[in-house]
TrEMBL record, chains A, B:
GO terms for biological process: ascaroside biosynthetic process; fatty acid beta-oxidation using acyl-CoA oxidase; lipid homeostasis. Keywords: ATP-binding, FAD, Fatty acid metabolism, Flavoprotein, Lipid metabolism, Nucleotide-binding, Oxidoreductase, Peroxisome. This is Acyl-coenzyme A oxidase. Coiled coil: none annotated. Residues 26-146 form the Acyl-coenzyme A oxidase N-terminal domain. Pathway: Lipid metabolism; peroxisomal fatty acid beta-oxidation. One of its GO terms (molecular function) is acyl-CoA oxidase activity. Belongs to the acyl-CoA oxidase family. Its main location: other. It comes from Caenorhabditis angaria. FAD binds at T152, G191.
Amino acid sequence: MVHLNKSIREGDNADLTSERLTATFNTHEMAAHLHQGRHHAQRRREITEAIEKIPELHDSQPYPFMTREEKINEGARKLEAVTRHMEKIIDPNNAAELFHLNNEVLGLEGNACALHGVMFIPAILGQADDEQQERWLHRAVNREIIGTYAQTELGHGTMLRRLETTATFDKQTDEFVLNTPSITALKWWPGNLGKSSNYAVVVATMIIDGKSKGPHTFMVQLRDEKTHNPLKGITIGDIGPKMAYNITDNGFLGFDNFRIPRRNMLMRHAKLDRDGTYTKPSHAKINYSAMVHVRSYMISHQALFLASCLTIAVRYSAVRHQGHIDPKAPEVKVLEYQTQQHRLFPHIARAYAFNFAGAETVRLYQKVLTDIEEGDTSLMADLHALTSGLKSVVTYLGGEGMEQARMSCGGHGYSQASYFSEIYGVAIGGCTYEGENMVMMLQLARYLVKSVAAVKQGQGSKLPPLVAYLGQKSESTSLIDRVPNGGFTEYIKTFQHIARRQTFSAAEKFVKLIENGTPREVAWNKSSVELNRASRLHTRLYIAEAFVRKVNEVADPTIKDALSDLLHLHLNYELLDVATYALQDNFLSTSQLDYVRDQLYLYLEKVRPNAVSFVDSWEISDRELRSVLGRRDGHVYKNLFEWAKQSPLNRTDVLPYVDKYLKPMMKQQQSKI
Amino acid sequence: MVHLNKSIREGDNADLTSERLTATFNTHEMAAHLHQGRHHAQRRREITEAIEKIPELHDSQPYPFMTREEKINEGARKLEAVTRHMEKIIDPNNAAELFHLNNEVLGLEGNACALHGVMFIPAILGQADDEQQERWLHRAVNREIIGTYAQTELGHGTMLRRLETTATFDKQTDEFVLNTPSITALKWWPGNLGKSSNYAVVVATMIIDGKSKGPHTFMVQLRDEKTHNPLKGITIGDIGPKMAYNITDNGFLGFDNFRIPRRNMLMRHAKLDRDGTYTKPSHAKINYSAMVHVRSYMISHQALFLASCLTIAVRYSAVRHQGHIDPKAPEVKVLEYQTQQHRLFPHIARAYAFNFAGAETVRLYQKVLTDIEEGDTSLMADLHALTSGLKSVVTYLGGEGMEQARMSCGGHGYSQASYFSEIYGVAIGGCTYEGENMVMMLQLARYLVKSVAAVKQGQGSKLPPLVAYLGQKSESTSLIDRVPNGGFTEYIKTFQHIARRQTFSAAEKFVKLIENGTPREVAWNKSSVELNRASRLHTRLYIAEAFVRKVNEVADPTIKDALSDLLHLHLNYELLDVATYALQDNFLSTSQLDYVRDQLYLYLEKVRPNAVSFVDSWEISDRELRSVLGRRDGHVYKNLFEWAKQSPLNRTDVLPYVDKYLKPMMKQQQSKI
């Protein structure tokens, strides 16, 4: 028999199968919408199957049972193996295929080459001149050398200008002398810097004739290529365990009069001649592009993290029975509880929304790249503002959803068998890396404040599409309850109203402070929480719009209907969440708020029959999920027991601490009596 | 020189000292308000000093560098040592002193006797009859035997009635036969069950003559007292690693026709005679008292977790410099940023509020205990409702604050050197254990709905104090901006209004569904999210009231002024957080909301000079805090480097995985070219 939900197999947990049988859409089709079209969705499944057949690509035991050293060893083992098998399984030039392969085989806790592909090679491509690329690029691409990108220092993160590491030009020997003048100047945090990399692109303040020329990048060999021992003058090591992501060896690095040739300065943009003549880079923005690149892709990766947690929680909620709604009937699936639905379904909607917004962002990023090649940098500021906002909002709201998903599984969610805490730990790091969220929100706010100024100067009609709504007028009240079905537009107008109102009021607060004599940056600081709120509302509006655009674009009516339910749920949930802003000046009335609540509960019920199918559609394999609780087949309890029996503590019945410490304690107490 | 802030020492980080010099109150005095009066605050300091002098009570290395097995061993080592030294350091009968000693020495990741004192002994006290206490109590108190309390099963948590483990009475042999009829019936989760305990109080469904008598408690020996080997018929082990709290061996337990004497059934309340005659317990509520006991104390423990995270974040924010407010001046402390203040200060206020509410709860619990001894159980329902709500709201909001604190420290907050992730991991477990939060909120909601019914029946004036406000009438609008300074009362009235409005509307939704023919439990389920919101607002009102009561009670004007600032901050922050409810029907006007925002920013500034002193007042020692980032002396960077150098990965320059896997990978690639 052919089922719409493609995850059904014989022998599965019957409760889970019964959920899948109520699907109103084909999950393969939905997967195509989530994963860049039918072709790639199909490739993902093929890759999963190919991996299944190669045992050395499988985890040799669950990660939670390994020490950090064992995990790192296991990660390197699989990294070597997957490198050998790669060309059989995927097209290595297809980033999306490589991403999926890595997720399945290496997992999300990192690996010895995590930064090599994402930061080191792009740094060479973006910043080394042609001759330099000749020297390093093919060696890096072929992994003859392994590298990373060393920017942040123990005492300095985002403020590039304040980096303390120095590269002083020695004209006599035609070399740079690298130094770490203080403890706070130690390079700190770069991934794979500690133990894996033998090269790094290092950011240091360049000094020529005693004068600082600001931060520049340098190719630095860190370790002997044969012995892997650190070179003389280099202090290097791992910064120690983190909240998560512990297969990656984030490292520290110090220099003590370490010399590199002048031509190890990356000279695509800035240059230094043999005679000490310095040429500035022509375009300062160029350096941002690596960050924007990573941020653009972060949105959909974060959506995948959230979807992973929801896959676990929604499936488990269909398997877990607890309590009664009808006192005479058997215990119900916990998925029947409105509180459980309210905890999970709006986050399913968010995961979808983030995915759609992420796909748009990547498309915009690719357009900006093409534009730049044609000399047009006009969209860069928009893309930067958009990704700054999305990165912050998505990582934060995603974290909220992941923790709700974990807690919705009760005690078992707290066990590492669920793998929740690791997924959360890795994902939530995104609030901090690639631009700390508060800093990002305020970068977006600067863009919004400029847009408000443009509107006030009568230039509102010339604003770029992302902020065009700031130049438009509001209705005096919301009309969300006038167009009952499919009234997406009125919701969007309401979100536009509140984002606009908050943006204007925050900008006005800032301007008024300046007019009253407050220094500009002090005024900015005193307005920053309100500006932050504006950035958040602006970004949440964008996410809702991206979801609406997606639904409007879908042709297949079963997919469109299902996504429309999810979108309705999203719009009502999000509006309720920011209703404080909407209720001001009675733009939204009290009775409209009641309407929003009723709609919310209505759409929880509508989403209910498709809940499992919505998460199944992400097609995150058991291998990738690494969660006993989230297994496709729903056989949770038996496998929790099997998992627990493997725990290292269960290798012996009586652990050494019992004889060594507990028994003496017990006897000591007895002797007192 | 004598300073008001008692944490100042010579040689400290100057930025931190400068913060401490602006304190407007004596931190020892504030500590007395946080820690049950001057005497106990002084005892805490003395205990800290005593521990300092006994090296075997100190951690032998930082926990994050240990494997789980090493941690468990280290925990047992210190447990044995602290048991030996205990009577020199504290009065072992003083629970508060014991609590502090354990926090400092054993820490928050648990220990082999964690459940022994909190659950096993109270279970004997509460449920064993006098003769049974004679047999087991002194052996337990003296730790000749180590026990735990085994209730939850793999497939069942909160639903006691559905527990599957059976204890079948065999009249012939005068024994109970214990069985685990399925995998889901395995006892699962009890702390210290896996490897440490040799006894347990086990909850099982009692069967007499083929008939179930419901859940009862039994004393069961699990392991041989000499060899510690599991007894025949017992399957036992550790359930595997968890999100946190991994020194404790949460365990599983299965029975295969395991026999215990009839008199191992705990018979204080229910009884079974030799001839099979069964006597029911007289008062079903009695069994709740252990849960209520734990929940009553949880509130202040959770406050301490939150305060720990804030201590780390606020101190670090005074040490960390980043960016500029005045472009010409040096980089500023990150504590100067309004966004940073907004991230941290309202949570300082919450930690104080939770502490004050927790102290009230413990007093009420003690009163209820006295009442019960005098045969008066009238307050038990109120206490149960109160602790259910507080437990849920405090664990959830606390978690929010802890994660904000971590993120406010940027990358370094993500390092386990900060210890944030462990504190969060342990604390957030509180959302799940001792009654899952959603279940707890709905238990409170039942109490609130009953109170509404009483009001509707004209009994509003007879409601107990905790819900008396439900019987009162609202003003038509809020008056918060009419009494500018010290207008705590108008804020409380506003919180009362919104809690009352939501409670009535949720209750009415429930009643209306029933009137329209919906079965009662279905109606309850369909109203449960709204009921939940009511419970939350009710509890947050209580917390605000407890804070107001505390401030009104303080005599010392410097303490009173400082706490008043914190309370103002709290009231405005909380009101803004729930403003959606207040804006309905224009109870709060848009201009009043603007007023609340302005007040919020004003009180962030007022709290600023005391921020470090507010966290210092908790007097959480460096030993207890276990955080490099939160050190009292503020010497963060040097010690982060020292910490990292100790990381196990840095014991050798080149780790085995490099030669074993990375080099073959690098060569394999080279050979392809």
